[in-house]
Amino acid sequence: MKQLTPYAAARGRMWGPDGSGALRRGSAKARADLVASWSAAALPPGAPPAARAPATARVKHLLGEGRLYLRPRRAQDGHWRVEVAASVRGRWLLRPVAAVVLLLAGGPMRRGFRDAVERAAEGWNEAVGRLLELGPDGIREELARQAAEGRPGKGSKDAPKG
Fold this sequence. Notes:
- The mean pLDDT is 81.
- The longest helix has 56 residues, at 94-149.
- The protein has 162 residues and is an alpha+beta fold.
- The chain has helices spanning 34-42, 94-149, and strands at residues 7-14, 26-33, 55-61, 64-74, 80-90.
- Strands 1-2-3-4-5 form a five-stranded antiparallel sheet.
């Protein structure tokens, strides 16, 4: 009997406004293997990282493709660290152009990416902190409420903007 592996996956396509053409279209795919993620996070500090990233994402566009790899690690101080690796490359004749753009703008792009990852980590820490404050029973109640409503509450911090 095959054992089921808990994972989360998402796929999507993006289109620009009507008549915007192929340059405003793309697709994305993401996957997170939850068991592999917990296993990677449980490795002792300094151990070699997991061979395969437990969480991955890919974005495709006519002009290029980007990939994102996330590997959780336990740090010496008891905190978790997440190793983030991204690769971006142009497609077809745009590879040389993408190489020149990355050469010239690589530093600011890396800083912007690093800042975005740090903001995401801060948001994650806030969300986990709110969940920890609720406790197991509070989390169950909140999940049941959101499942019944189909979305976060209108007055909640997690409600969609706009």
